[in-house]
Amino acid sequence: MSDTGDSDVKTDTGEAPPKRKPRVLRALLRTVLLIVIPAATVLAGTAYWLTGGRFVATENAYVKADIAHVSAELDARVDRILVRDHADVEAGQLLIELDAAPYRMALLRAEAEIETARQQIAAREAAWREAKSELAQAEGRLAYLNTQVKRQKRLAKRGIVASTRLEEVAEDLRGAKDRVRVMREKVARARVELGGEPGRDPDLHPLVREKIVAREEAKLKLSRTRITAPVSGQIVNLRLQVGEHIESAKPLMAIVSKAAPWVEANFKETELTHIREGMAATIELDIYPGETWAAKVGSISPATGAEFALLPPQNASGNWVKVVQRLPVKFHLKGDGPALPLRAGMTATVSVDTKRKRSLEQVFGPWGAVADTYAARLLKPITLSPATTAEAAGARKPPSDGE
Question: How many other CB atoms are there within 10 angstroms of residue 189's CB atom?
């Protein structure tokens, strides 16, 4: 049976229709389907393979900034609030004043106790001097009685005085010795009460020093009734009212620092194979489409996010399922970048240029090296870095920081 397109059906004029056109179309279609499309697919796949390993990108990235949490160090009542939410403050600026009356009275009490301690030291100095005088008097009497005893013994041998007189003088001598011993103990006790160094500055005595420390502590607490900004930045989460009683260590507000922000991207562990510190990167924020920031890899976290989770996975127990983990990577922005504000928590897209190059020579040997030469020429527009492409398109690129 002959093909329908090749039938000998004639037209009204008696001529047969042309037969070559359908054959040419079918041959062209076969060529496209069997040669052109597969070849284009192979070329596209090769181009994708050659250019696909250099740049590593992720949308799991966020702007970060230093945040200082401000809290009180005392339990007190709020007397004045000198700032408002989202206000700009400088380091050392007064933010809140607490009720300072109790702490002023504590300071006055501590100062009074210092004066009392100084008077006690002065009294001990006087007692020490008095004890020394009494000791000297007792030693003088002891020396006198020693002489009297010797004299009475000589007279008793000669029979001039009665033996009873000698016994009386000997008894007085024993009493004088006891008196000297007691006075020496009294002097020693007075010296100990003076810290072993009589006559020195009273403020060096442990009793006075203790009171001075108490006064300094009272001053410190009084100073803490004035809460100041630890860093320069912007106030956030201020939820406080005048007259409210606050507790120590309870956060009152936070200050987002004016220091340069950075970007933290969470890459899959399989994407970090060729990423190293110092590599160039480009960052685009979702809030500013079309604007790019040049950056570099600052550091790679030594642990995955799961290690810091409140309930980390217990991989050694139960049924285990392998899950690709993510590691935070910190990026430092270069230069000033576009004159646009960066706020903590903004989402971003990060692309890292690993400078990795794939080669057909690794697959096909020497013939692949020749193919690499031609592929490099054909794929040169494609292999431009995102920063270069953005610059060619007119995007503003911040200057490098010396690199």
Answer: 14
